[in-house]
Design brief:
By secondary structure, the protein is an alpha+beta fold. It is built from six helices and 15 strands. It has one domain. Strands 7-11-8-12-15 form a five-stranded mixed sheet, with helices on one face. Strands 1-9-10-4 form a four-stranded mixed sheet. Helix 1 packs across helix 3. The protein is elongated and about 75 Å long.
């Protein structure tokens, strides 16, 4: 194949089409448990996560709530993926073999939010959230009706395979996926480019800016206890009993039971069977089973 501007333009369009095709093929799950926030700066501060005021009866002057300023920010990170195509491959007209490569390229990009979101949740016992505690912890500080501090747990303990009970119906889901710049397909394929001149290689890549962080810890519960009806009930009670500062119930309703592959069977039996061990299963259909391979 003769390398000309027209040829390279056609190749670029073809490679980009394969890339976009791969993006469309990937089935992602992060949207189920993460709220996407569009970022406009290098980092975004979420100090307001500490307090969401309640509606009150209007007696006398308005009561102006000053939102708590927790020092919690999500700093955007740069990510990239680049591949090279040898000039001789184009000259020898063997570029057809690159179709699956660029499709896979696109799928990797589409899956990147899943990688970030589920990776963060999986490490939630070691990563801090807005209150300065680990996201999954046994002693999150909360104020009671009199303004005294007490502690609340969203960690069921145990030493087995972790499973998660999440409330995803709130405005802010358990995880925040922060996007600054969406991934875009770019090319460095001018015959006079240094990479072509020095290495006989055309470069095609994508890059973007994003990151992830935690939303409200109250909307997520982790347990390493066996996934039984009794332990599931305890997790539901814990989430449903969560209160805001000063004793206001949060009225959370957990709706996703998220598990790794090893617990998919146990989760399906608990959520889909009419009976468990010969007794009526009162927990059937109370949550959606979300199996996430990245939690393995």
């Amino acid at each position: 194949m003769l390398i000309t501007t027209a040829t390279l333009n056609a190749l670029r369009k073809g490679f980009k089409a394969h890339f976009q095709g791969g993006v469309g093929q990937e089935k992602t799950l992060y949207q189920r448990i993460a709220t996407t926030v569009l970022s406009t700066a290098g980092e975004e501060t979420y100090g307001w996560l500490g307090e969401m005021p309640e509606v009150r009866e209007w007696i006398g002057d308005r009561h102006v709530h000053g939102l708590k300023e927790h020092d919690y920010a999500i700093k955007n990170k740069d990510f990239e993926l680049t591949i090279g195509v040898q000039r001789n491959k184009i000259k020898d007209d063997t570029i057809g073999v690159y179709k699956p490569v660029f499709e896979g390229f696109g799928r990797k990009v589409a899956a990147h939010p899943d990688k970030l979101v589920f990776g963060l949740l999986k490490d939630g016992a070691n990563q801090k959230c807005y209150d300065g505690q680990s996201f999954f912890d046994t002693d999150h500080p909360v104020l009671d009706a009199e303004g005294n501090t007490y502690t609340v747990s969203n960690d069921g303990g145990g030493a087995g395979t972790p499973w998660y009970l999440l409330c995803t119906s709130e405005v802010i889901k358990p995880i925040i996926y922060q996007e600054r710049e969406a991934f875009d397909f770019v090319a460095l394929d001018n015959p006079t480019d240094a990479n072509v001149f020095k290495n006989k290689e055309f470069l095609y890549g994508t890059d973007g800016r994003c990151n992830v962080g935690f939303g409200f810890w109250q909307t997520a519960f982790v347990s390493r206890q066996p996934l039984t009806a009794a332990n599931y009930e305890a997790a539901r009670v814990a989430v449903q009993s969560m209160k805001a500062d000063y004793g206001e119930p949060l009225n959370l309703s957990p709706d996703v039971l998220m598990v790794p592959p090893a617990l998919e069977g146990a989760a399906n039996r608990l959520m889909k069977n009419d009976q468990i061990d010969g007794s009526d299963n009162e927990w059937k259909g109370t949550a959606e089973v979300l199996m996430v391979s990245r939690l393995a």
